[in-house]
Amino acid sequence: MLKKGQALLLAIFSLIIISLLVTAFLELTTIDLQIITNHLTKNQALYLADAGIEYAISQLRTNSNWKKTPQPIELPPGSGNTYDVTYESVSGKINSVARLTSGEQISLEAKVRIKGTAPYEVKIIYWREI
Questions:
Q1: Alpha carbon of residue 56 to chain centroid
Q2: What does the alpha-carbon distance between residue 128 and residue 28 come to, in Å, rounded to a whole number?
Q3: 77 preceded by a cis bond (ω within 30 of 0)
Q4: Which of 53, 59, 70, 88 would give a disulfide with 66, using CB separation of 3.0 to 4.6 Å?
Q5: Cβ neighbours of residue 61 under 8 Å, at least 6 residues apart?
């Protein structure tokens, strides 16, 4: 049988062990949440830059002399997240830079070839993150 003092020590020791396990679990959960947030933010920037490339391709289908967005385009409206796109007709490269309000920034580059007459056929040679 345990005496009163021994039972108290066992209860305190058990409480310390449980507290350490809970603390470790909370730390892991916090780290996982940060990883998820970083992944989400990067994907948002990537999709926004991708929208810029798609926008440029749609502009080039109707006007092969299109060069750039007149100003950064906010998407979705009111979010503060923007993309800015330029097209270099000599090299056939489209550059899209996405900027999120969180500070995340991603640049994509696509090389295209334009053929025919309006509506022009825009063939994508490659599409990559730079």
A1: 19
A2: 34
A3: no
A4: 59
A5: 118, 119, 120, 121, 122
Q: What is the pLDDT of residue 22?
A: 96
Per the structure, the complete domain to which residue 30 belongs is given by 4-129
Residue in 79, 81, 74, 77 with CA at minimum distance from that of residue 99: 81
Residue 97 backbone phi and psi in degrees, to 5: -115, 120
Both tokens assigned to 23: 């603390």
Residue 13 identity: F
Nearest to 119 by CA among 67, 63, 49, 56: 63
pLDDT digits (tens, 9 = 90+) for 23-67: 999 999 999 999 999 999 999 999 999 999 999 999 999 999 999
What would the pLDDT profile of 81-127 be if each residue is shown by its tens digit? Answer: 999 999 999 999 999 999 999 999 999 999 999 999 989 999 999 99
Which tokens in the block code for residue 17?
A: 């062990």
